[in-house]
Amino acid sequence: MEFPEELKYTEEHEWVMVEEDLAVVGITDFAQDALGDVVFVELPEVGTRVEAGKAFGVVESVKAVSDVYAPVTGTIEEINDDLVETPEIINTSPYEDGWMIKIRMEDAADADDLMEAFADPSIKAIIATIGGDDSIRLLPYLDLEVMRANPKIVMGYSDTTVTHMACLAAGVGSFYGPAIMAGFGENG
Predict the structure, then answer these.
(1) Which of these, 101, 95, 57, lies nearest to 77 by C-alpha position?
(2) Which residue in 69, 83, 62 sits closest to 27, CA to CA?
(3) Cys bridge to 35: 61, 131, 135, 136, which one at CB 3.0-4.6 A?
(4) Which residues, at least 6 apart from 188, have a Cβ–Cβ distance to it below 8 Å?
(5) 104 touches 75 (CB < 8 A)
(6) Is residue 57 within 8 Å of residue 100, measured between CB atoms?
(7) Are 14 and 26 in contact (CB under 8 A)?
(8) Phi/psi at 99 (5° precision)
(9) Are strands 101-105 and 74-79 parallel, antiparallel or unpaired?
(10) What is the DSSP string of 53-119?
(11) Residues 187, 123, 19: CA angle, nearest 5 degrees
(12) pLDDT tens for the 188 residues of the chain, in order
């Protein structure tokens, strides 16, 4: 899975490319992979005001229908009309041709609250050492504080897998099963 470093991310798996007061928005490689073959995309009209954290559109695949959330507040400046006729572009090019909307931000500082891909310098050093950016490969090198400070590490994994990751990171060995892990997963 790719998480380009020049982009910012939401916990709901949207990506954002910030260009001054314009935010280009799409869904991540992880999100399109989890959805499967995209067959329909619903986007708002140009001129529509969207609010950060609120749904602005829908992506439908052969597996599921999923809302897509605005990462920032502003007005829709442009939509990707190509997605109406060929929604599968999201699967083949989620970070380039598969962009969904462009939002003229009311406050460009909103983008400061978004996540960066592996923003922690210690994680970047580990990635450079072992190669790749697969979270599972990073586990032996991480501690719980690094995991908590970098939500992207656990983004997209099930609660059970996150619990397992946290146990490995804490040095208590492997654990698969229900557990309460402070700060991890929806049930933890």
Answers:
(1) 101
(2) 69
(3) 61
(4) 159, 162, 163, 179, 180, 181, 182
(5) yes
(6) yes
(7) yes
(8) -60, 150
(9) antiparallel
(10) TSEEEEEEESS-EEEEE-SS-EEEEEE-THHHH-TTHHHH-TTTTT--EEEEES-GGGGGGSEETT-
(11) 90
(12) 567 778 888 878 899 999 999 999 999 888 898 899 999 999 999 999 999 999 999 999 998 999 999 999 999 999 999 999 999 999 999 999 999 999 999 998 888 888 776 544 444 444 444 444 444 444 444 455 555 555 555 555 445 555 555 555 555 444 433 333 333 444 33
CB contact set of 31 (below 8 Å; sequence gap of 6+): 13, 14, 66, 94
- pTM for this prediction: 0.65
Helix (H) or strand (E) holding 22: strand 22-27
Give, in degrees to the nearest 5, the angle at Cα 112 between 129 and 45.
115
Place of tokens 């995991």: 147
Tokens of 101: 């909307």
- CB atoms closer than 10 angstroms to residue 73: 17
Q: How far apart are CA 53 and CA 59, in angstroms?
A: 16
Structure tokens at 99: 């962009």
SS (HEC) of 157-171? CCHHHHHHHHHHHHC
